[in-house]
Amino acid sequence: xxxxxxxxxxxxxxxxxxxxxxxxxxxxxxxxxxxxxxxxxxxxxxxxxxxxxxxxxxxxxxxxxxxxxxxxxxxxxxxxxxxxxxxxxxxxxxxxxxxxxxxxxxxxxxxxxxxxxxxxxxxxxxxxxxxxxxxxxxxxxxxxxxxxxxxxxxxxxxxxxxxxxxxxxxxxxxxxxxxxxxxxxxxxxxxxxxxxxxxxxxxxxxxxxxxxxxxxxxxxxxxxxxxxxxxxxxxxxxxxxxxxxxxxxxxxxxxxxxxxxxxxxxx
Length: 267
Hints:
The chain is mainly beta and 267 residues long. It contains 2 helices and 22 strands.
């Protein structure tokens, strides 16, 4: 009777372990690895897909028989690339959708992944982006929202960036994580009227942490450096753009400098 009781307790313990660590037990005792899937879409299509450095196909690409782990994913189409790390979840499909561009500032897309839980979590680049779900404003990223299962439309927006709209289905008992990258929008400077000036304004370069000031090809830290100017150099001010000044150098080069490191010269 005592032996039977011991065997019952052992069997109960094994059942508890199987319930709590079923995936691990299968993998260790039965050599059955848990599987997950990935679906990759891109614009333009037929972009080469690389997983952990190995080319596996072209977009649209799908594989439902992948090991549960983190993968390095890369897309390439005629020099327009994207690369990121994606952690797959057992028994679910992770979706990657990218609009490719040679300049990463104008590349956009999203990664949709599922995990056990409830609701939806939205993160973005840039952060502090406005979030609407089904037409209702719900704050700024990063944000987690308790939603019912079903189809939902997510709109992510930020000043100076193109809006991104995503339709997704949220299953029961799952949390959907949406990681969004927004693309910079190009301001149409031809529609901006310029005031008439009677004197050519100038700015002088102030002290900088580097001892010089970079001149870029567009009004962004992501802009390409086209020249450098020294402290106390005077530049012709062509336009003020809120945080950036369009200037002309002594050799005639035109570009953009941070307005934080220049000041206007009094007439």
